[in-house]
Amino acid sequence: MAPASVTTASGATWQEVAADRQRHRDATLDQLCPPLPKLLTDDIPLNTTSIPGSLLTEEELGITGTAVEDLAAKIASGEWSSTTVVNAFLRRAAMAQKLVNCVTEILPERALKRAAELNAYLATHKKPMGPLHGVPISVKEHVGMKGLDLNAGFVGWVGNVADEDALILRCLWEAGAVFYVRTTQPQTLMHLETSNNLYGTTINPYNSTLTSGGSSGGEGALLGLRGSVLGIGTDIGGSIRSPAANNGVFGFKPTSLRLPVEGLAVTMAGAEHIRPTPGPLSTSVEGLRLFTKAILDRKPWLRDPTLVPLGWRDVDGEPESRGRKLRVAVVWDDGVVRPHPPVVRALADVVEKLRASEAVEVVEWKPWRHDLAWEIIAKLYFCDGGAEEAAAIDASGEPWRPLSKWIIRDNPHVRAHTIPSLWKAIQERDAYKAKYAELWNANATTADDNNTSEVDVILCPAGPGVAPKLETARYWGYTSQWNLLDYPAVVFPVGGDAISVEKDGDGQQAEGAQSHAYPEDYTPLSEADAYNWALWKEHGAAGYRDAPVSLQLVGRRYEDEKLLRALENLLDAAGLPRSC
Amino acid sequence: MAPASVTTASGATWQEVAADRQRHRDATLDQLCPPLPKLLTDDIPLNTTSIPGSLLTEEELGITGTAVEDLAAKIASGEWSSTTVVNAFLRRAAMAQKLVNCVTEILPERALKRAAELNAYLATHKKPMGPLHGVPISVKEHVGMKGLDLNAGFVGWVGNVADEDALILRCLWEAGAVFYVRTTQPQTLMHLETSNNLYGTTINPYNSTLTSGGSSGGEGALLGLRGSVLGIGTDIGGSIRSPAANNGVFGFKPTSLRLPVEGLAVTMAGAEHIRPTPGPLSTSVEGLRLFTKAILDRKPWLRDPTLVPLGWRDVDGEPESRGRKLRVAVVWDDGVVRPHPPVVRALADVVEKLRASEAVEVVEWKPWRHDLAWEIIAKLYFCDGGAEEAAAIDASGEPWRPLSKWIIRDNPHVRAHTIPSLWKAIQERDAYKAKYAELWNANATTADDNNTSEVDVILCPAGPGVAPKLETARYWGYTSQWNLLDYPAVVFPVGGDAISVEKDGDGQQAEGAQSHAYPEDYTPLSEADAYNWALWKEHGAAGYRDAPVSLQLVGRRYEDEKLLRALENLLDAAGLPRSC
C-alpha cells in the first residue's frame, strides 16, 4: 500500500487531504468480497446495533458474537479457521463503519495473509502460535503499523508513515494476533468524544445523537457493534474507559509503564509528567486479561526500558485466600459533579446487590479534593501551553474542533510552563498522590489487627452520565482522577440496563425515579456540575434513550491483576455477566 | 536539641554560621564519656586508618570490626547489648571526625535512648524488633531527621529543621536500627568529593592528600575508618559508589524508585528527569542486602506512591539454577577516559582469576557512546540552568567551591531548558536507554537457543582512577553512565590490593608495571582523558600511595537482587572476600 500522496506538505488543502483519506478508507471497504449489502435506508435510525445481525450469516454472527477466550479456544482447536474468523470480523467492522463512522481503514490483504500463515502454523505444529493465535484485534489509528499512514487525527500529519509496528503490536503479533482494522480518534487525542477533520464524527451505535466517547471512540463504537471483540485503546484521562462505558463494553486502563507506548504517534513526545498507557477494550473481562497477560509474557521491558519489569502476577483466590470478603469502597459522587440519574440508579442497584452478597463487603469512600486533582492534572497535560497541539492543527489550516478548543484554549489550568513552574506542578502532583496513599493506608490500619478492613477496590461512576450528546463531553474528573493517581481502572457495563424513560424519568419530574433524580431544590456543586445538570434538564432520559449504563472499578497502583480478579468477583456477587 | 539559631536568615555572616555549626558538632563529640583521647600529634599522617585501632578497647575493636550480619546476630542473641554496640560506634565515629572531618554531629543522646529501648524490647519479647535490631546506621546529613538541622551542605539552609524522619529512616527504624551519627556532603551534593563551606573538606583516611569521594564522602570516610559498618548514601551520578570505592568498602546504588527519597533535602525538588536514589555503604555485601531487604520488606511504596511496588525477590541459585556459568562482560575502558594503571591492573588481575574459574564466563562488553551518555545526563542534571543551586549558594554569600563551579558553571551541557528543549532531552535519554537495551538483547539472542550467552552483569572500573587528589575529581562517566541507564551498580574493594609504588609504578617509566601503564606514545581519547592522564603523569603511584583499589559491577535495570548475588559469586570465583 503506497503512503498517502495527497498531503498538505505536497500542497493539498486540508479538505482535499480529508477527502482523499476517506476515499482510501472506502477503497479498503470495497475490497471485501462479496461486497457489503446496502445497510441503511435514507435515515440513520437512532439505534443501529441490531443492523449487522440482520445482514450477517449465522456463522458470521456466531463468530463475532463469541467472547475472546472462546474464540481463541475454537481457533486453536481448529473448529474455526483463522481465515473464517478474520473474514467475519472484516465484514462486521466494515458494516460498523457504514453505520457509525468508526474506521480509518480495514486491512483485508494483510489480515488474510496473516490468517493463512496461522492456519499453516497450526497445521504444521499442531499447536497455536501463542495465546492469541488467530484472534483479530482492532487498533486505534495512532498505534503505528509498519508501512501505513500515521496521522493521529491531524490533517497535517497525513503522509507520515510508520517505520515498523509499535512495540505493543509486535508483542501481540508474537502471541498470534491478527490486525485487521484501524479505528478513529479525535483531533488532539484529547477529547472524550471522537471527531476530527479527516473523517468527521464517530457516533454511538446505541443512539446516534450521542458520542461514542473518546479518544478511543472508534474502538468503542466498533466493539459496541461487535465489529471487534478485542481492541487497543490508549488512555491519559479516560480515553479507553469513556468509549468502553459509552458503548457498553469492558475497558481497562492499566497502571502506566506496564504496557509499552513505543511506536505510538503523539504530540509532546518526551512529556512524562502524566503518562498515557495503552490498554484493551473487550466484550469480556477475560479478553482484558488475555490481552494484558499476552503482552507482559513477552517481557516488553527488555525492549522498552522505560517500562517496569513486572510480569503478569497470578492472583487466583485473592482476597478470598486471606479468608475475608472483597472490600469495595463506593464513591457515589466525586464532590464536584453529581452523575445523571441513570448512573446514580445503576450504582445504587449494584451496591444493593453487593450488600446482599456473602462475598463482598461495602464501605463508603470519601473522595479527597477531586477538584484539586483536576487542576493538577490539567496543569500537566499541555506543559508547553498547547504549542505542539496548536502546531499540529495549524500545520494544515484545518479548523480547531470545539472540544480541542475546550480542553486547550479555554482550559484555565493550561499554561506554558517554565522549568520552575513545571517542577512545582510535579511536586503538587506527588503531594496529591501521597495524600491519596494515606487514605488507603488509613483505611487499612485503623481496623483490627488482621487488616480485615483494608479496601481492595473503589467502585465509582465511569463518568458524569451515560454517553454524552455530541460536543458536550466536557467533564473528565471521573476518569482523569485515576490517571493522575496512576491507579488501574476498569469500566464494565451494568448488564442490559440501558437508559429507558420508564426507569430514569425524563427530567426531574418523572414518575418512579425520584430517589435517583436531582432533588427539587438542587444546588450545583460547581460550575461543571451546573453544566452537567443543565444537560439532564434539557435532554432527560428520552434524550439518552438506549444508552448503555456502565460503572468503574479502581485498584491501587500496580494492582492490575488484583483489580481484574476483583471485577469478576464483584460481577458474580452482583449477578452481572463477565461478558456482554 | 534546639534548632540552629545562628543563621544567615537571622543576620549572621556565612563564616559565623559555619563556625557555629562546627561548635555544635564539636559539642556533640564532647558529650562522650569518657572523653576521647588526643588522637594526633601536630602532623596528620598520610594514612590514619590504624589510629583508632590503637586507642580503642579490645571490645570496641571487636564490635566495630564486625560485619553487619554478624553484628545483628550477636545483638539479637544478647551477646552484645545495643548500648555497648552503640557506644563503640559513637566513639569510633568521633575519632574518625577528628582524623578526616567526616561528621556533622554525633547523636549520643538519641542513640543511647534508642539502644535502651531495644535492650528492653529484647528482654521483654525474647526476640529482636526486626532484622536490624540494634544495628547502628550512619546517615548522610541531607536525609532528614526529625527535629535536627537539615542544611544539605548549603550555609544558607542552616536553620531548616526536619518535621519528621525521612521515610527511609522510618523503614529502617521499624526494622530495629539505631541512628547515631550524621555525615558530611559537598556543597550542591554534586561533587565526587566532599567539601563545603560549613565544615570544610573531608579527606581520605588512607591518604590525606586524596578525597574521600562524594557526595556521600562523609559516609565513605567514616566507613573507611570503621566508624560505621553500614551507612546511608544517595547517588545521582556516583555519589554512593565514588566514596565507597575511594575508601575500600562496598557501596550499592539500586535501581531508582525502589528505595524512598521522601524526606531528603535537595534542590530542584520535582525534577524527575534523572532520579537520585538512596542506597547503602557497608563493609560487607551482606550488609548491602540486609539494608535493602529490610526497607523493601516495609513496603515503602504504600507510603511513597512514586515508588515501584517490587518487594525483595529471592534469587538464590541464580544463574546456577539455570545450569550455566555467571556471564560477566568486561568494560576495560569506556572509550572516553582510560583509567589509571592501578585500576587497569586490578581489573586485569580479577579477570584473570575469573577466567580461571569454573563458575564464571568472561566476555567483552563494547561500550556504546559513553561520551554521548554524559552529554545527555549532564543536560538533564540542572534543567533550570543551575538557578536553584545558585540561589541556595548565593543566599548566604558563601563562595562557590571549585567543583560546584566545574559541574554547573563550567559545564558546557548545562542550560536553562524550555519545555520543548526539556522534552527533546528526555527523548534523547530514552533513545539512549533503548539503544543500550538493544545491546543486552543482542548479546542474549545472537547465541544458541538456550540463551546461554545472556550477559548477567558488566564488570568495569568504578572511576578513572583510585581516590583522586583534592579538587581533581572531574570525570563522572564511570558511575553516571549507570544513573542515566538507571541500572543497579555496586562497587567492591579488590581485597588488600591498595596502590603501591612497587606494583603500579611511579609515572610511566616505572619497572614491572609496563603492561598496565600508559603506552609511551599514548594519545588521549578526549579532553577529559588528557586531564586524567596528566594527573597520573604529575602524581604517579607515589602520589596515590595506599589508596584502595575498587571495581564496579553493574546489572540490568531492576535486577538489584541478582546483581548482589552475582557479586558474591564473582568475589568467590576471584578469591576475594565478601567483607572487608
Automatic annotation (TrEMBL), chains A, B:
Q: Which family does it belong to?
A: Belongs to the amidase family.
List, alphabetically, the PROSITE patterns matched.
AMIDASES (PS00571)
Query: Which residues are listed for substrate binding in this entry?
Result: 189, 215, 236-239
Q: Which Pfam families does this one have?
A: Amidase
Q: Which InterPro entries match?
A: Amidase_CS, Amidase_dom, AS_sf
What name goes with this protein?
A: amidase
Which organism does this sequence originate in?
Answer: Anthostomella pinea
- EC number of this enzyme: 3.5.1.4
Q: State the source organism's domain of life.
A: Eukaryota
Spell out the SUPFAM superfamilies in the cross-references. Amidase signature (AS) enzymes (SSF75304)
Chain segments annotated as coiled-coil in the UniProt record: none
What are the UniProt keywords, alphabetically?
Hydrolase
Q: Where is the active site?
A: 140, 215, 239
Q: Which Gene3D superfamilies match?
A: Amidase signature (AS) domain (3.90.1300.10)
Q: What is the lineage of its organism?
A: Eukaryota, Fungi, Dikarya, Ascomycota, Pezizomycotina
User: What catalytic activity does the UniProt entry give for this protein?
Assistant: a monocarboxylic acid amide + H2O = a monocarboxylate + NH4(+)
- Domain Amidase per the UniProt entry, residue ranges: 85-564
